[in-house]
Amino acid sequence: MKVDNLEVKIFETRQEMGAAAAQAVADKIREIQDTKDFVNIIFASAPSQNEFLAALKEEKWIRWDKINAFHMDEYVGIAADASQNFGYFLKVRLFDIVHPHSVWYLDGNATDLDAECARYADLLEKNPIDIVCLGIGENGHLAFNDPHVAFFDDPLVVKQVELDDACRQQQVNDACFDTFDEVPQNALTLTIPTLLKAKYAFCIVPGEKKADAIYHTIAEDIQELYPSTILRKHPNAILFIDKASSGKLKEISSYSQA
Hints:
Layout: E1 2-3, E2 6-11, H1 14-33, E3 39-43, H2 50-56, E4 67-71, E5 73-75, H3 86-98, E6 102-104, H4 113-126, E7 131-134, E8 158-162, H5 165-173, E9 186-190, H6 192-196, E10 200-205, H7 211-219, E11 237-242
Parallel strand pairs: 2-11, 3-4, 3-7, 4-6, 7-10, 10-11
Antiparallel strand pairs: 1-2, 5-9, 8-9
Organism: Dyadobacter luticola
GO biological process, one term: N-acetylneuraminate catabolic process
Domain Glucosamine/galactosamine-6-phosphate isomerase: 13-233
């Protein structure tokens, strides 16, 4: 299935989806490693990525010592070793296991957050991104670009944002926090243009709670109210979804699994 430029692949289970996404990313990494010394990759931190990350770390023939890793967002004020910290999430699930050449963490505890955004932006500018592995939020956000701050022509590379209520509630729904009030109100995020600068985008979105977001991604006009719709303009983007997250696509008259 293809919607504008976006290729959509549907799988029966989360495990099948994660394995297929990992295979596709691994193949692209190996392809790029044949042509350049280092591959620069942005990773997402969320439970939706668990199956993908678990499969990716098992992929053979990836030269992790030739990979530079970034992550796309971080809470402000969460301890670096807290389970909810996005850098720590990736550290324990992937980076400490596969040992990339470089891992650049976004520091949500920096004394000067503007300077931290500038530091990370400089790293991204000096290491152009080859691959972005991302998800889609329940509100359609990419990274922490919730609808009210998801500017398709954002002049910034990395910025501070205030999270909307839907985004904060999702963190409770995902069992990352026990209560809404525990979820930080502020975060740092790579902007939409920064994410889309990646030459290849692999978007992994399982689960029934994401069914509305997937429907909007595919059915709505491309607009900032539904940030994920911008993926349909990327020249090399693939959306991996499972049966649960694809559940509302049947409501689209033109929908076909072919």
